Amino acid sequence: MASIAELAEEIKTDKIKNEDLIVCLEARNLRVVAMAMFKLIERNYCNISIVDRLSELGELLTDNKFIGPWQFGHVAIATLSLLENEDAKIKFNELFERLSDNDKYLVDNFIKLESYKI
Fold first, then answer.
1. Which of 30, 46, 89, 105 is deepest in the core (most CB within 10 A)?
2. Please, what's the b/e burial string for 10-34 (b: 16 or more CB within 10 A of its CB; e: otherwise)?
3. How many structural domains does the chain have?
């Protein structure tokens, strides 16, 4: 089993296996988790484990500043929207409906600005 640092390097060099991206979503290092989310979007890779984990991460809407105005949860919820997977779309709609207007705006903005491509 590769260390999180090794997996992060594999994400950067695009040598990571899709299955290992799931491991990265469980990392304590939020930078690695974010890198994994962006790679999932890039590859459009999704399964029910990923949907469940992104849903959990979607709860991080306060005190989890990520980039710019976005909290980590905004990014996780946006990731669900950007994956072409029916389970992900259902979970996105469920989570999005419960958001405040401000949080909805931030998620929409993250998606429209394609901030995951930076």
1. 46
2. bbeeeebeeebbbbbbebeeeebbb
3. 1
Q: Which residues contact 115 (CB under 8 A, 6 or more apart)?
A: 67, 68, 70, 109
> Domain of 30?
4-117
Cβ(15)–Cβ(7) under 8 Å?
Answer: no
User: Tens-of-pLDDT digits for all 118 residues of the chain?
Assistant: 578 788 889 999 999 999 999 999 998 888 899 999 999 999 999 999 999 999 999 988 777 677 777 888 999 999 999 999 999 999 999 999 999 999 999 999 989 988 777 6
Cβ proximity of 22 and 53 under 8 Å: yes
